[in-house]
Each structure stands twice: as C-alpha cells, then as structure tokens.
Amino acid sequence: MGMATITQVLSWLSGLDWIKIVSGLVPTTIGVVAVWWKGGFRVLYRRYRFKSATRKYRKDLKNDVSSLIVIGKREGFDLSKVYVDIDITKSDLMGKVATEREAPPKRLVLVGGPGAGKSTYVKKRVLDELSHGGARVPFFIRLREYTRGASIEDLLIRKLEMVSIKDPQDVLRSELREPSSVCILDGLDEVRPDAQKDAYEAINFFYHCYFDSPNSGTLIVTCRKEAYRSIPLEIPSVWEVVPLNDPQILAFAQSWPLGYPTGKSPDAFYNDLAASPRILEVSRSPLLLVGSLLLYTESNLGIPGERVKYLEKIKSTLVEDWAIAQGHPPDPRRIVYTPLLARLALKMQMEMTAELPRAKCIEFIGELLPDYGFESAEAEAVLEVLLTKTGILVRDVPVTLILSSSQCRNISHH
C-alpha cells in the first residue's frame, strides 16, 4: 500500500463522526452481552435446578430402599448394616439350570418364594448404585402402584415429577438409554388382578423399547415364582434366589442389630438351629430367619425344645403377617387360609403323600369352604392365593400336581 493510499484512509477516518459511532455501538454491545448473559444464566440455572432435583430424588430413593422390613416392628433395620450377600442362579423356569456358577445378565426376571430375599436383593442393588454406581438417576418402583392402562414410563415419570425435575419425559428417556442405567420393577405378583394383562404388556413394551439390545442398561423385574409360572414376560433370562447357606445364616445372626440377652449369642442361635433340622430348613428364607431371630432374642423360647411354637410363628408369618407388612390390601378370605392349609396337610399326611392333583385339591377346598361361610365356587381362587401368595403350596407343572412345600410338611408334622 502506497503513501497516497494511507493518506486517503487516514483522511477518511478523520472525517467520521466518532462520537455518533461509539454512541451507537455501546447500546448494541450492551444488548449483545445482556442477551448472552441472560441465556448463559438461564442455562446455568437450569443445570442448578436439575442437580438440586436429582439430589432430592436420590435422597428420597435412598430412604425408600434402605430399610429391611421386620414384621412386628414399626421401623425396619438399616439394610446396609445387616445385609448378607444373597446368591441367585438360573431358574428351572427357563427349562434348564446352571451347571456352574456364572454371573447374572444385566436384564432378568428374579423369582423366589415369599420372603426369599428378592426385594432385599434389588434394594441393595439400588443402594450400591446410589453409593458408587454409574447411573445418575437409577429407578425403583413397586409394581403394586401400577394402574390399568398405564405405561411403565408413566410410573417412572411420576417419580421424577415428585421432585420437580423439568421435562421429566425427556430426562427419563435420556437416562434409560444410557448403558449404565438401572431400573428395578419390584413385585410383579402384586399387580391387581384386573390390571395384570395391561401390566405384562406394559413391561414387555418397556423392555423392548429400552433394554432389548446388548448395550442396554440393567433391568430387573421381581416376582414370586409360583405367580410367574403362568405369566411369563418376554425377558428371556429368569433367575432364582438361592436359599441361605449355613455361613450366610451365621453371618446374618452376627449382624443382628437387636443384640442378644444373657446366655444367648449368634453361635448359640446357629447351634440351636442346627439341632432342629426342620427349623433350620425354613430359616434358609431371609424372612423366616428374621422371624426365628426375633423369637430367639426376644423370648425365652429355645429352638429345639419349642419347635411347635416356632413353626406356628412361621405359619402365621407366611399366611397373615407378611402381606400386611408389605401393605397389601385386606383379603376377606385370609381367615380361612390357615384352617384350610391345616386340613390339607392332614389329608396329605393321612394319605401318606406330599402331592395332590390340582382338580382333587380344588374339590377338597370346595367341600370345606362352606364351613367357613364362603361359597364352594371360590375354591379355585382360594387355591391360587395359597399357591402364589403364601409360599406354602407349590405346583409341579409337568404333571400338574399340587405339592406341599417343606413349610407345609413341617407344620403337618406338628
């Protein structure tokens, strides 16, 4: 650029009205900065609200899953302090069982009897996720909350709305599509009968939408084994809670939070259990182990010498107390379950069998129901409750027989 050109540029610049130019630029600049700041502030505020809401969500979820229900106690035990690792394995409902120990898949249905530890297992899974997992927003819902016509997304969105998470549907879908996501659907057997078909379809849709690929997150659905026989879902893996082994029983006794009176101890408790094989057998269920420990530590009962009282307590726990403690609605037929089970057990004992054909069992119950003020036509419905809700009767599907479980056999002997 020559000197003449430079001179012309300087001359042109000197002729500009700089006061007017600057006075025009300042408001524009301020406006641009204000708009940027407002947008940035809005983004920051949204992030703050989301973090605050998720903190509350995680805190509420932790409070929800951190307690082990104890029948007869107003408050449960701190799960993190009393939890003993529960083993699970492939269920025979898959048509095959594991030949060697293997890690469970990320997506499965977990089955077991009442009080076998299904809910405890998944609640501990959620607690671990909250403590050191990769899921920012893990999900846990009780399927007894399911209402006819709803989707699983509806239930989960409701949880997010309760803590005022903005755009809960977008947040939910984003979180569920993360490989680190965790979603627990607890208690499929607790869905109300009139909503069961809808619930199964909703869970299948939810599974295929978010979890039906190798890179999907974790999905666990829990259900009582007997109830699951007639469902099943389209989730291919079905695993089952394994009864507690002796070291697990002793470990739980050692972590017992209520302490032991003079003359009693975890080792003495276990030795008493071992001296009474029938009580030891039923105490392999976490629910019944808690019941045995409550009796042992809060009464003067000694297990070997008081088997009848222990077994009576086990019966009432399975038939009556557990459903109430879980918050199930009142069952007007519950008063007949104990006498019916007793008469069924007596019949099996007199016929020297542990099996009854289903049709014969329905017929027998139908004959007994009028004695207790109920119609014979209700026999099949009553039998279904005894199968799916109490855990005292089980069925052998291949030969369609009703079997007395170990608990029922034990009660019949006493």
Helix content: 40-55%
Q: What integer value in Å does the Rg equal?
A: 31 Å
**Stretches with pLDDT under 50, minimum 5 residues:** 396-414
Q: What's the overall average pLDDT, rounded?
A: 79
Order of helices and strands: HHEEHEEHEHHEHEHEHHHHHHEHHEEH
CATH fourth-tier homologous superfamily of the largest domain = P-loop containing nucleotide triphosphate hydrolases
Strand content: 5-15%
**Estimated structural class:** alpha/beta
Give the CATH architecture of the largest domain: 3-Layer(aba) Sandwich
**How many E strands?**
11
Termini, distance in Å? 113 Å
Q: What's the number of helices?
A: 17
What's the CATH class of the largest domain, please? Alpha Beta
Query: Tell me about the biggest sheet?
Result: 6 strands, mixed
CATH topology value of the largest domain: Rossmann fold
Rough outline: elongated
